[in-house]
Design a protein that fits this description.
The chain is mainly α. The protein is 76% helix and 0% strand. The chain has 5 helices and no strands. The protein has helices at residues 4-20, 26-48, 55-75, 84-108, 115-134. The two termini are 38 Å apart. The mean pLDDT is 80.
């Protein structure tokens, strides 16, 4: 049995931990910011971006924009997953690594900057394979 003064401290610690935890629905705010960024970058790519080589606009920029938008839509489902912070963190990392490197490669017209997108694909395949092998489902 714990002395009463230690029980109070334990309860205070638990309360502090509850307050510091991130609410899973904060991922909706992150999805909103990501969606606005995706729409802004898509609009920029469609109306303003004029690269010297059209392949960077037609393929690289559009691919980055579409994957950015799909990841953002998936972020909306984050609160209903088993581990929302892991799922949301992986999706956000996917947006930054894949779409970010494709946007950079298209804007600078240099495919060397798209190396991070290959790392993203490797991580995605490993995560998907782990989910299938362990039979825990696609959503962590």
């Amino acid at each position: 049995m714990m002395p009463p003064e230690l029980e109070v401290k334990t309860e205070e610690r638990k309360e502090c931990m509850r307050k510091s935890e991130m609410d899973p629905y904060h991922w909706h705010k992150i999805a909103a910011v990501s969606g606005i960024a995706a729409l802004g970058l898509g609009t920029y790519g469609f109306h303003i971006f004029k690269p010297e080589k059209p392949i960077f606009k037609e393929h690289v920029w559009q691919t980055a924009y579409l994957y950015h938008l799909f990841h953002t839509a998936a972020l909306l489902a984050t609160p209903v997953t088993k581990r929302p912070h892991v799922f949301g963190g992986l999706l956000t990392a996917g947006i930054l690594t894949f779409s970010g490197s494709c946007y950079t490669a298209a804007y600078l017209e240099d495919r060397n900057y798209s190396a991070l997108s290959s790392i993203w694909w490797l991580c995605f395949c490993c995560r998907l394979g782990k989910s299938v092998i362990l039979r825990i489902g696609i959503f962590l």
